[in-house]
Amino acid sequence: YHYNLFHLTGIRLAPKEKLNIPVLFMPDAMTMYKAEVVVHVMKENGENWTYDISTESNKDLNRNVSLAENGGIQGILWRYPVHGIPEAPQQKLVVVRCQAKQRVEQRVEMLLFGVVPHARNSDMANTDTSANIQEVQATDGFSETVEFLYELQYQSNEIRSQLESLVGMHLLEKEWDAESEIVTLIFNVVFAPNKPMRNEATLVVQWVTGGVWKFPMLFIATEPEVDDVINIVAVGLNKESIVGFKLTSQTR
Where in this chain does the record put each CFAP47-like immunoglobulin-like domain (predicted)? Predict the structure, then answer.
């Protein structure tokens, strides 16, 4: 459903020729849709492939061939599963600003539109549940639980190495309004930069049934306060005055 599959029949293919099969995806809800593209190939001269398919043969083989009356193989089928995952338009940029060597906590509200409770798909088993992805369960007096995964993604490994230890996100509140099909997630974002920087990241929220929302985030660290004032008192004209002070590195 919700796929437009072009039914191609009677197409003649030369050896090693390529065939492009167009698939158009037009989702009407933020949930995963599944379909299957089946390619059925038969010999142009109408002859069959000779092969003995016994009851002990592989089940996948029996499923992927069409048998003729004489017991030969009339056609071979290739099956391509298609998963359509809707992605919401990119949301408004969220800016988190903090002075270097300081720490800021900021509440950020994320709105997820198009969450339809009856669109839940219980057989989705390929969801990524790696350690850096956290699960959210949002309920609002309904018997069904709306489950989400969220992760902060970075544009490069270099940006990840700069931001990952400086940024923390924690879910404070969640609310699901089934009537308006909107889920509200409120995060507490902690940003503690150690030097001036300007880096981007993306908060990716995925409904376990397939919908994806992306929220761009910009982390800005401004110049820090002056650490200290060093006073050097001259001991005389054309004579050197020396002041010593210590610098401590926060990293190796």
Answer: 87-222
